[in-house]
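Private note to self, pasted from the team thread so I don't lose it. Backbone tokens:
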């Protein structure tokens, strides 16, 4: 879609805004909004609202897991539909948005109510536009990023573009239509990724439990979740194929001399792949190093998580990890397989959905944490093909999963571009860089 610019522009006098259409004005926020400090009555039953960086304003009850439930909302600020809620602490990260609900919100937030001749939806698009976040941060006060606060005394001085009320409404109508179209495209790509991931799981599950030959004689595995397996494959507990099944170490605070990389948990191992961004450096004794030193072919499992769905994520130690003499923390479990059971096949098996479901069912829970231990991991049922077939299964899965991963990566790149376009079109429309009047 091609967009024209306005016929004439003028300097806005505002650095972040640049030139604006000649007939637009600029005004400080305090001329467009007023700060509201109406307190809710005691024992009220109003809807408790919160503002989030990613989704804007939502009732807390819809997203209870995102925060603790307030014991009382007495004295909270009253919010009316159409108000803008500002998280003073996180506004510069995008925690600001239009409320489509009436209710109450924490006194830690500011409530801004639009004045006559201004459209709150237009300013919602403007405020949640990334160009504004830098400005919010510049006007925030505090000694460090995580202590910054955007008080209305400062926010009120930020200069904003002011099109006519009619043009504000046209911009909103255009962006509502355009962002809905883009969101639909994004949703379709996300659905396709979901289907590809399901296909990936299905291919792995079938290969590690049924094999590659559809004509091979089958037998009852004796394990309900496994069903029938190839007649010549062995059904056994995983511990029969393991020579090491042990937890890690944490050591002491780093000294800066001879510190060792110690992998914490899912921070370094994401969905079975390495994500070495911020590994811990720890001071380990010689005994600790020896006990937790990772070797190529080791399997590293996440054994503790706030959700049973995340435990059991397994990563295969490659030559690069082994070369750097890395160790692992006590939040993880190291598995070393026998010479007759290929650890790459073990990697596929442990990341297989059926195995992960066993982990979820049998994991223990301590203070809300789901936990695996060596006994649970060892008692998982697996199917063991002959060594030559293990290699064929691995080769097949390497090829098929790489093909699917390539397709997923393409969809993810497309989603990223669509999101960038969405942000760009919002930014250009609300700042007058494109003339959308002919579209409305």
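Design output:
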């Amino acid at each position: 879609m091609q967009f024209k610019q306005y016929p004439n522009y003028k300097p806005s006098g505002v650095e972040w805004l640049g030139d604006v259409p000649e007939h637009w004005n600029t005004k400080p926020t305090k001329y467009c909004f007023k700060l509201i400090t109406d307190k809710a009555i005691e024992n009220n039953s109003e809807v408790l609202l919160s503002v989030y960086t990613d989704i804007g304003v939502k009732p807390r009850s819809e997203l209870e897991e995102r925060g603790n439930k307030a014991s009382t909302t007495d004295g909270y600020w009253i919010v009316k539909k159409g108000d803008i809620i500002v998280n003073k602490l996180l506004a510069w990260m995008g925690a600001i948005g239009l409320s489509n609900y009436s209710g109450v919100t924490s006194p830690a937030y500011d409530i801004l109510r639009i004045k006559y001749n201004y459209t709150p939806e237009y300013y919602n698009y403007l405020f949640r536009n990334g160009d504004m976040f830098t400005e919010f941060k510049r006007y925030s006060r505090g000694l460090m990023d995580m202590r910054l606060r955007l008080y209305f005394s400062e926010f009120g001085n930020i200069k904003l573009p002011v099109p006519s009320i009619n043009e504000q409404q046209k911009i909103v109508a255009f962006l509502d239509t355009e962002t809905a179209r883009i969101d639909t495209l994004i949703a379709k790509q996300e659905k396709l990724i979901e289907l590809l991931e399901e296909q990936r799981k299905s291919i792995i599950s079938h290969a590690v439990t049924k094999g590659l030959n559809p004509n091979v004689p089958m037998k009852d595995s004796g394990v309900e979740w496994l069903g029938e397996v190839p007649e010549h494959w062995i059904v056994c507990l995983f511990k029969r194929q393991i020579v090491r099944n042990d937890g890690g170490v944490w050591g002491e605070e780093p000294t800066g001399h001879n510190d060792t990389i110690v992998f914490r948990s899912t921070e370094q191992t994401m969905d079975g792949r390495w994500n070495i961004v911020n590994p811990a450096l720890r001071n380990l004794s010689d005994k600790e190093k020896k006990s937790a030193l990772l070797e190529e072919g080791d399997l590293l499992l996440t054994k503790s998580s706030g959700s049973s769905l995340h435990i059991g994520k397994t990563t295969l130690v490659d030559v690069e990890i082994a070369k750097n003499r890395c160790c692992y923390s006590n939040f993880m479990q190291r598995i070393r397989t026998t010479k007759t059971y290929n650890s790459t096949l073990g990697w596929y098996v442990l990341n297989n959905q059926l195995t992960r479901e066993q982990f979820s069912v049998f994991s223990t829970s301590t203070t809300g944490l789901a936990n695996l231990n060596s006994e649970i991991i060892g008692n998982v049922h697996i199917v063991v093909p002959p060594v030559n077939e293990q290699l064929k299964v691995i080769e097949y899965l390497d090829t098929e999963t790489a093909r699917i991963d390539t397709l997923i990566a393409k969809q993810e790149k497309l989603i990223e571009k669509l999101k960038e376009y969405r942000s760009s079109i919002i930014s250009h429309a609300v700042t007058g860089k494109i003339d959308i009047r002919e579209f409305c």
